[in-house]
Structures are given as structure tokens and as C-alpha cells.
Design brief:
- This protein is 43% helix and 19% strand.
- It is of the alpha/beta class.
- It folds into 3 domains: 138 residues, Response regulator (Rossmann fold), CATH 3.40.50.2300; 154 residues, 2-Layer Sandwich (Beta-Lactamase); 165 residues, Alpha-Beta Plaits (2-Layer Sandwich), CATH 3.30.70.
- It is globular, with a radius of gyration of 29 Å.
- The model has no long low-confidence stretch (mean pLDDT 89).
């Protein structure tokens, strides 16, 4: 426990608190009587462990734990909640607080106070937690006043509402990723409108095809423009020439940028981009506006990953590697690419709490067509169905060839009911298409199985399996049907 910082949030009559047993163990401890004072201490000096009673005079211990654990920056900070012996009922917040340990006073006494503390600190050691990391729990400008609970709760509510606003912003941006111009319009309108800086933008750090979008409320000087680009490329270690989408005039007589800040967006151990902002004059940004940008930096990573993924898809179209991901007959993505894309989409949708639907389309009795008319006719049918799928789906959907006579469509931001609507649209469209333009050929119909994402299971095989079960039911019901 050497050099460990512990915050005890306890009442004056905490008879279970045995601080003497910690002497000689090399740990520091601070004792505070309320949750808001604990938050101030965490912000000012950090912590390696927080031990809090469940019943506090301002905010409950479980609420304090939730504030710590549901913050990406401080989720690894261990928290122990101590409950009265008569209050051991397991409630929703007992689980939702994500506390590392929930113990009664008598349980701590039985286990030994020092032993309990040492076990809790082991969590911090396992995750290589540093006490200073806890200082990022709330903005530095924010202070809580334990003597004025109402005012402190108001300050806390501001931060929580900012986080909710950021999550809403990220969800909305994720719905307009394509085309890029539309996404950038939405970004500048939403983020720029909320933050209110003179200069705002973002950079996607694809090392081969990086791009930057910058918008200013006025004309930028050529010198300031070059300095901004140099700082961005240097900070993100981008060596390729970026494509720049600039939405303001640049001239020798334009305004200089006095304040400029780059907030990198990390991903999988490497920088995948950044958001940035600046002003034409030296100014102090309102702390709530600054906190909005800081929270956006922490939560926008999935959007950047999807932008990079879509950019990679675009790049594959112009490279030899594209062929490895595409079915040669239909020109659609193949099964391997489908599974990879679906896995990524499920992870993103899980984090953003967005639905995902899928439809598997099977050409009815293709084997009989091949036997009666020949495999060339079967290939015409498969190619024709592929073209119709591309025609009736959205640009954000992914259409792939799933197997010999089967296709799959991944439907982001679409629930099961929406997937069924798409399935019926496909079924009806295929039934009405004249594949052979008056020539002799088979009547073509399809059966469709639809499913939606169960957020308790991130395995892409699960949603594919559910869609296959629905497809089998559609075929058993007489084919040319849609089932979910």
C-alpha cells in the first residue's frame, strides 16, 4: 500500500473505521464528511481508493461511485461502499454504481479493516492506476460547496447535462457519415453552433489519406492558416499531404489566430484524429463550453473509427486489395468482409445504444433453376438480385453476398420492424422484376429472414443466426415470404 492515497467519506460515528491499522503501511489518507467534499479532494489531489458510506448528508455513496465509475477517465479508480448492517437489501443502484466492493460495517470488521483496504487497492495496482488520473473527473474550474448542497447539485447537473448533450451530438453525427460533405455540414452546424469559437474543425488522421476540415467566422490570414496546418500535422504525426476542406477565406490581410487548441482523439493506442478550435483574440472560454469540447473529445472516437472504416472502404475500391473483399459474380462484398463490418457496427451501436437490423435474402429454388435452365441463367438471376438490392437499400447500408444463393444487408440505426419493412420492399421488388426481358426464364422470388441486434450479445454470429432462423421459417411458410 506504499504511497497510496485513500479518501474516506464517512460520518463522525464510523466505528468500523480503523485508521490505526493503516499506520506503518506507507499510505496516506484523507477523511471528509460528505460526497461533495470528496469530489473536491479528488479533483485537487487525486486518489488511489475511495471508501464511502452509503448514507451521506449530500449525495448517496452509490451516486458518488456512479459519478466516478461511469466516467471513462476515472472508471479504474477503486471504490468501496460501506452500508449499515441493517441495510443489506440489494437494490438497482447497488449494481448500477459499479462499486468494486459493497460491504456492511460488520463484514469489514470480520474481514479486517487493513485487509479490506489492501484488497481494494490491489484493483488499482492491477490496472496501473495513477492517483493523478482522478483529477480529470471534473473541470478544474468547478468547485463544490458542501455547505450549499443546492448550488453544488446545480453545478453537478451542468456537467451531467453536458455529457448527455455530447452523447446526443455523437449519435446524430453517426447518422450522417455519408457523404462526407453532409457529415461536415452537420459537424460545423452542430458543434460550431454550440461551442461558438471563431475557428473550429476536425482532422481524420488516415496516414495515407488524411483530411482536415476547418471553418472560421471571418477571413484567416495566410500565415495563421499555414501555422494551424503545421501544428495539426506535427501533433498527430501526419506525414502525408492532407486534403483540406476549408470553409472560410484566406488572405494576407486576414485575421491572426491568437488562441488555438488541438484535442487528439485516441483509438487503439494510436491517434486517429482530432478536434480543434481557436479564436482571433486572446480569450478565456466559458468553462462549460470548454467542457463540452473535452467531453466531445472523449466520446467521439466511434465516429472517427467509422469515418476511417468508410474511408478504407473507399480506398479498397481503387486498390488491388478490393478484389479480396468482393464477390466476383455480383460485385458485392463477400462474407468475410460482411462479418468484419458487422462486428464493428455492433460495437459502435452498443456504445451509442443504437439499433442494428439485418436481412438475409435467399433466392427461392435457385438449384431447380440451374437444373432446368442452366447455371448461366442462375448467374443472371444472382447478378440481377444484387443490382436490385443496391437499388432499394440506403447508402449507409452494407449489401453482401452471404452464400451461394443468399445475400445479406446490414442496416445501421434500424430496429427489427425497420428490417422487416426493408425485407418486404425487397421481396415485392424482386417479384415484379422482369429478369429476362420477355425471353424464356424462371419466375424469380426471394424469401427474407430479418433480425435485430441484441445488445447483450456482441457476437456477429448471433444476429446472423437469428436471421437464418427467420429465413428458414419464411421458406417453410411457402417461400416468397418475410419473417422476423
Amino acid at each position: 500500500m506504499a504511497d497510496s492515497k485513500i479518501i474516506f467519506v464517512v460520518s463522525n460515528d464510523a466505528d468500523w473505521l480503523d485508521l490505526e491499522s493503516l499506520q506503518g503501511r506507507g499510505c496516506q489518507h484523507v477523511r471528509v464528511p460528505s460526497g461533495f467534499e470528496a469530489l473536491n479532494e479528488i479533483k485537487a489531489n487525486g486518489a488511489d481508493l475511495v471508501v464511502a458510506e452509503s448514507d451521506l448528508p449530500d449525495i448517496a455513496g452509490f451516486q458518488l461511485s456512479s459519478l466516478i465509475k461511469l466516467n471513462d477517465q476515472t472508471s479504474a479508480l477503486p471504490v468501496v461502499i460501506v452500508t449499515p448492517d441493517h441495510d443489506r437489501e440489494v437494490s438497482f443502484w447497488t449494481r448500477a454504481s459499479h462499486a468494486d466492493h459493497v460491504l456492511s460495517r460488520s463484514e469489514i470488521k470480520e474481514a479486517g479493516f487493513a485487509s479490506t483496504i489492501e484488497k481494494a487497492l490491489g484493483k488499482a495496482k492491477e490496472t496501473e492506476w495513477s492517483a493523478d488520473k482522478a483529477k480529470s473527473l471534473f473541470p478544474a474550474e468547478m468547485r463544490f460547496d458542501a455547505g450549499d448542497v443546492s448550488r453544488s447539485q446545480g453545478s453537478l447537473l451542468q456537467v451531467l447535462l453536458i455529457e448527455r448533450l455530447v452523447n446526443c451530438t455523437v449519435r446524430n453525427l453517426s447518422k450522417v457519415l455519408e457523404p462526407r460533405r453532409q457529415f461536415l455540414d452537420a459537424y460545423h452546424q452542430t458543434v460550431g453552433g454550440l461551442f461558438g469559437g471563431d475557428v473550429i474543425g476536425l482532422v481524420v488522421a488516415d496516414q495515407e489519406n488524411p483530411w482536415i476540415s476547418l471553418k472560421a467566422n471571418g477571413t484567416i490570414s495566410a500565415k495563421a492558416y499555414e501555422r494551424v496546418l503545421t501544428e495539426i500535422l506535427s501533433k498527430l504525426q501526419i506525414t502525408s499531404q492532407p486534403h483540406v476542406d476549408i470553409r472560410s477565406e484566406v488572405s494576407e490581410e486576414g485575421s491572426d489566430i491568437e488562441d488555438f487548441e488541438i484535442l487528439p482523439v485516441p483509438g487503439d493506442g494510436s491517434g486517429i484524429g482530432a478536434i480543434f478550435f481557436g479564436s482571433f483574440q486572446k480569450k478565456e472560454y466559458d468553462w462549460t463550453a470548454k467542457e463540452f469540447m473535452t467531453q466531445l473529445q472523449a466520446h467521439i472516437e466511434p465516429v472517427f473509427k467509422l469515418l476511417l472504416a468508410r474511408q478504407e472502404i473507399e480506398t479498397l475500391h481503387s486498390r488491388e486489395a478490393y478484389r479480396a473483399n468482393v464477390d466476383s459474380l455480383t460485385g458485392l462484398y463477400n462474407l468475410e468482409f460482411l462479418v468484419g463490418f458487422l462486428q464493428q457496427q455492433l460495437l459502435f451501436s452498443f456504445r451509442q445504444r443504437l439499433p442494428v437490423g439485418i436481412a438475409i435474402i435467399d433466392v427461392d429454388e435457385l438449384g431447380k433453376m440451374n437444373e432446368e435452365y442452366g447455371s448461366d441463367i442462375g448467374d443472371v438471376v444472382l447478378s440481377g438480385v444484387a443490382k436490385r438490392l443496391l437499388a432499394v437499400t440506403r447508402s449507409s447500408d452494407l449489401v453482401a453476398r452471404y452464400g451461394g444463393d443468399e445475400f445479406a444487408v446490414v442496416l445501421p440505426n434500424t430496429d427489427g420492424a425497420g428490417a422487416k419493412v426493408l425485407g418486404e420492399k425487397v421481396r415485392s421488388d424482386i417479384e415484379q422484376v422482369a429478369f429476362f426481358q420477355g425471353k424464356k426464364g424462371p419466375k424469380v422470388t426471394v424469401s427474407v429472414g430479418c433480425a435485430s441486434f441484441n445488445m447483450e450479445d456482441l457476437n456477429p454470429e448471433t444476429i446472423l443466426r437469428d436471421a437464418k432462423i427467420a429465413l428458414q421459417r419464411a421458406k417453410e411458410e411457402g417461400r416468397n415470404k418475410v419473417a422476423i
